[in-house]
Please model this.
Amino acid sequence: MPLSPRAAGNSASWPRLLLPAAIGLLLLAYFLLPLDVFGPEQPVLSWTSFALALIVLSLLLLREIRKVVVQAQQGHPATNILVLICLSLVIFAAAYLALARHPGEFNGLHTRLDALYFTVITVSTVGFGDISPAGQAARAVVIVQIGYNFVFLATAASALTTQLRGQVTRRAQHPRPPRRPASGRRRGGSGHHDGDHDGDGDGDHDRTGTPPEDYRG
Model:
């Protein structure tokens, strides 16, 4: 059953509201959740959680990318991909924060904001030198993130570009019809027809009582 224009507009607009809300919740969780359980005191838990999080995230990204490639109509893969990309930043930032608790692993990384900052500049391939990995484990995770960016995030960005280009092409080929002006009642009520100047519904005589020329004998 086709959606009404209002329902279709609501369906298209709610992902725009979902995206900033989801990003805000991810950042809130990153800064408020107790991440102290990950660190040198729990190495097995830390590395296992990091590996499982990356595996689950990779599977979710591949599923959403596949939806874009096959042009599936269900769901909102573009919004989901953007949320998953932000989730990947939070996961790597949490890993760097846990590694920073190991002596000698990082230079200049002390807070959660430092870890998130280092994650973002690693993704953007912009290095300022203020934070640098010094230990073997930290450098290994940086290598994993760089490889993850090349394989998954680059593929996700390409899928988003493909979907956006397809939407622009479809809108150009099938432009929306112009809105019709709202129909209002003419003066004189519903009985006002052509030739009915007084609104009485007779339509045969003008205000002077003279019949129209078509009816004159």
Summary: Confidence is low (pLDDT under 50) at residues 1-5, 188-192. The first helix runs from residue 5 to 32.
